[in-house]
Write a structure and sequence with these properties.
Layout (H helix, E strand, L loop, with lengths): L5 H9 L17 E7 L3 H14 L4 E4 L15 E2 L6 H15 L1 H5 L10 E5 L2 H17 L4 E3 L1 H7 L14 E5 L3 E2 L2 H14 L3 E3 L4 E7 L2 E7 L4 E8 L5 H8 L5 E13 L7 E4 L4 E5 L4 E8 L11 H12 L10 E12 L5 E4 L5 E5 L9 H14 L12 H5 L14
Parallel strand pairs: 1-2, 1-11, 2-8, 4-13, 11-18
Antiparallel strand pairs: 3-7, 4-6, 5-6, 9-10, 10-11, 12-15, 12-16, 13-14, 14-15, 17-18
This protein binds flavin-adenine dinucleotide and pyrrole-2-carboxylate.
Length: 415
Amino acid sequence: MRRYSAFAIAREALRYHSGWGKAWRSPEPKKSYDVVIVGAGGHGLATAYYLGKNFGITNVAILEKGWLGGGNTGRNTTIIRSNYLQDPSAAIYEKARSLYETMSQDLNMNVMFSPRGVMMLAQTQHEIRGFQRTAQANAFQGVKTEFISPQRVKELVPIMNISGPRYPVLGALWQERAGTARHDAVAWAYARACSGMGMDIIQKCEVTAVNQSNGQVTGVETTRGPIGCKKLGILVAGNSGDLARMAGFRLPMESVALQALVSEPIKPCLDVVVMANTVHGYISQSDKGEFVIGGGTDMFNNYTQRGSFHHIEETVRALVETFPMISRMKMMRQWGGIVDVTGDRSPIISTTPLGNCFINGGWGTGGFKSIPGSGWAMAEMMANGQPGPLCAEFGLDRFAEGRFIDESVAAGVAH
Ligand code: FAD
Ligand code: PYC
């Protein structure tokens, strides 16, 4: 794999960029692998990468029914933060956030990590108490957040109306080193690094069945033929329930559509990320100048990767009081993704009833930010056969034991 560098750009500029190779190979699947990962989203690719980097396991195939990064990884609003309430969540999200800080250097591709700061507005008394509690918990967890005043909010976001009649801004939970990254680039960077280690990324290869013998996984059936494996990782977000059914178990998870939209591009006027959880809207400005806007999930289970009109109307209406300028902007595009939601709004990173079959899902509306930490923890569990400290609390057993990791406030998106 050729390194990307300033020197390489200069060299290619001199020969009309004719020398760039493909970023990853597209091989035919082999008969079997040590590890098969289902799902080439951020979580699947990051898991494969850390299997190779941290454990030297490179006889790995990543199977993807569509194109890599074409699921939620390429459809999200790219918010990265680690201001969660519970200790296990803060640990894994902060691990992920810290890996984002050096991801471009580590993977030798610019993922445009932009730690521009994320604020979650408090617009009710209840939210003030909730966010002050989170700031306190974060201080104990070593996650740097603070509860800031409405005046400080206004200084950071001059275009915001903080004294709206229905939902005045009463303060905010502020994380200065939170921010955004380019979502496709995260998937591409991991894919390129995996391919560079000799792993096979097989696109247009849908897993249709999971093969097993004596309670152990032996491989998968795919639209490109059977593929054997010693270990199987399932990282398919909204399709987690389908894959679990193929492997013979059920998940406490629901799949719903979450959607987002972007405005026409305008001059730079918003250089932090704002989440307004009471009114169900969040907003940031992209490098192109578009406002990236998202709202709540559909209130019914479905598998549509599309947006619906009533959501645009509700989301924009919700944000207009706080951002009056939106009322004069044109909205350009909308889209949706299928998110996998658990009852406690925390992920499942777990061994399963099927031997050597591991699952990672349930990131719901908030799993872009966790991609590197999740991949790190999943790789550790798959390599060692049991969960390490970063994911030990996120096992499936917590639902049988009633040991929930309640993150309904931190999820930040209405469910
Ligand atoms: P995906 O990227 O969906 O990857 C799973 C892959 O599995 C897909 O490519 C799919 O095609 C493949 N697959 C499924 N079934 C099969 C099969 N049978 N065989 C082979 N392949 C299969 N999170 C944040 O942290 N911040 C945000 O701002 C944010 N905003 C969001 C906004 C929207 C509109 C949406 C939809 C989500 C948002 N999220 C956000 C959530 C985040 O996008 C997801 O949690 C995360 O991307 C999940 O990554 P993944 O790798 O698990 O799933
Ligand atoms: O988890 O921060 C988040 C988020 C924002 C928008 C969707 N998810």
